[in-house]
Amino acid sequence: MKKIANIEFNDFPVFLAPMEDVTDPVFRWLCKNYDVDLMYTEFISADGILHGGKKGMRKLLLNAYEKPVGIQLYGKNVEALVEAAKIAEQYNPELIDLNFGCPVKKIATKGAGAGLLRDIPKLLEITEKVVKAVKIPVTVKTRLGWDFDSILIESLAEKIVETGAQALTIHARTRSQIYSGTANWSYIKNITSNPKITIPIIGNGDIDSAIKAKEAFDIYKPDAIMVGRASIGRPWIFKEIKHYFNTGELLPEPSIKEKVEIAKYHFNKSLELKELNAAIVQMRRHYVNYFKGVPGIKPLRIKVLQANTPESVFNTLDEIDYNFGDYIIER
Fold first, then answer.
1. Which residue in the list 16, 102, 156, 280 is annotated as catalytic?
2. Cβ distance 120 to 159 under 8 Å?
């Protein structure tokens, strides 16, 4: 049994990574149906919370079905993050996660997210003060370093333990890589084998299949793994991973007919919980992966991406089902 503070998990925990404009309540609801162990909100600006920004405050809202769930915060001001964490705690998440890994230029170059990898004293001060300010577990998510010339994650991990943080997630890339190249999990293995590391280490980066998930556990020995981009339009990946861990067998890829039903389910829930335009637009990134890799499907995939009413979305999904419903992508 694995644990983050008092939150218990089975032996091979698989988490949903926090992703802006992806891990909203609708997608979290869907992933929960596919056996994910822990989920996170989209990242939320500490300054936005303190200013009562509508978007940030809406992201704090959690539902009972999501448990356990963490609220992820980002910012560069120590006091703002402390106060935002106190507010976030009132929304009853299981934990607060601090984002020191976002590589996006408008965030990192302004000293937040991965930008704090260039100011380690402040990163540690933020972590320590947030830990002291709230009663729930505080965790950290970061990267190997700012660039290949400043990889510092091994020494940083030891210092994060000293702050009182309850877990550390490592995206095994530098900030300069953004999401390019290959994640280097060898650093994660060094950290998980370090006796000074007494908190759970969660590995993140390039986990896009059940086989890779199992290899990550077997070779690099993290306490949990985190799946990010590979879950977009593929929420069933969590079920695939769990099934492979438990049986050693790979589940077949859902047929296009099954994917159409999942997409409809997903879109219906979006219509239920979001404003109409947001529900339509934010589903588009998922459709790309729902219907990827099928010969001849491109015109209908473009059509569903361009659909701008619920009726046109559902009609196009029905067209996809009619024309490609029995197609199964071979692994």
1. 102
2. yes
Give CA–CA dist 17/200, Å, rounded.
16
DSSP H/E element including 97 = strand 95-100
Condensed to tens digits (0 to 9), the pLDDT of residues 48-96 reads 999 998 888 999 999 998 999 999 999 999 999 999 999 999 999 999 9
DSSP H or E run through 230:
none
- What is the Cα–Cα distance from 244 to 192, expressed in whole angstroms? 23
Q: How far apart are CA 173 and CA 55, in angstroms?
A: 29
Query: Hey, what CATH topology would domain 2-247 get?
Result: TIM Barrel (3.20.20)
State the DSSP string of 148-203.
GGGB-HHHHHHHHHHHT-SEEEEESS-TTTTT-S---THHHHHHHT-TT--S-EEE
- For residue 272, the one-letter residue type is E
Q: What is the pLDDT of residue 326?
A: 87
Q: How far, in Å, are 164, 166, 252, 292 from residue 130 at the CA level? A: 10, 12, 44, 42
What is the per-residue pLDDT across 158-210, written as a single tens digit (0 to 9) for each? 999 999 999 999 999 999 999 999 999 999 999 999 999 999 999 999 999 99
Q: Is 102 a catalytic residue?
A: yes
How does residue 273 score in pLDDT terms, banded at 50, 70 and 90? confident
What are the residue ranges spanned by the domains of the chain? 2-247, 256-324
N- to C-terminal Cα distance for the chain?
31
**Which residue's structure tokens are 């032996």?**
11
In the chain, where does DSSP find H-type helix? 25-32, 46-50, 54-59, 78-89, 105-108, 120-133, 153-163, 186-192, 210-220, 237-247, 256-273, 276-282, 284-290, 298-306, 310-324
| Distance in angstroms (rounded) separating the CA atoms of residues 235 and 267 | 13
Percent of the chain with pLDDT over 90: 93
Distance CA 169, CA 73 (A): 14
- The token pair that represents 38 in the structure block: 């822990």
